Amino acid sequence: MKRVIITIIGALGLCAIASAQDATVSDVWLEHNVSKSTGYYNQSVKGLEIHFTLEVDDLRQQKVGVAAFFAYYDGDEYVSLRTRYNTQYRSTQDNSVCTWTEVYPKYDSTYWEDFVLFIPYSEISRALPESASMACCVGVFHNGDPITMSDMVEFEFTK
Predict the structure, then answer these.
(1) Partner residues linked to 157 by β-bridges
(2) 85 φ, ψ to 5°?
(3) Which comes out higher in pLDDT, residue 9 or 155?
(4) Arithmetic mean of pLDDT, 90-111
(5) Cα–Cα distance measured from residue 7 to residue 124, given in angstroms and rounded to the nearest whole number
(6) Which has the higher per-residue pLDDT, 40 or 115?
(7) Which residues have C-beta within 8 Å of that of residue 19, sequence separation ≥ 6?
(8) Residue 31 pLDDT > 90, yes or no?
(9) Which residue, 24, 51, 130, 136, has most beta carbons within 10 Å?
(10) Is-contact 50 116, C-beta < 8 A?
(11) Extended beta strands in 16-87, E state
């Protein structure tokens, strides 16, 4: 009987530890017309930087995905026209336009004051009219499951 009780308590303790994994995204802001060297040929391209504060708890040395998703401001999904190539700028789940990276937090509580993601304008503008009201939000994922999502940040995009 003691063995069964210890096993149940141990399992409950593991559940409590797993649910303690947390992330906070705050202070999201966008920087326009940024030139970055990207790609195989290290070409300079103009694009959008997404800046934010990120804190990740209880995911030390585990793979954490950080992504910025784009949509029309009215809430309609913005889908990438690229279906086969350049998965850095689209979600493999639903083909929505995004940019992402993976990090491995060094500490039990890891804090980035200015975490930055970048997306070239060419990846945003492919299916847009001359101008559009767009929105961006930042998501944090562990094992493919969302931990947190930021509020939407609105911006005007003009070709």
Answers:
(1) 132
(2) -115, 160
(3) 155
(4) 85
(5) 51
(6) 115
(7) none
(8) yes
(9) 136
(10) yes
(11) 22-38, 43-57, 64-72
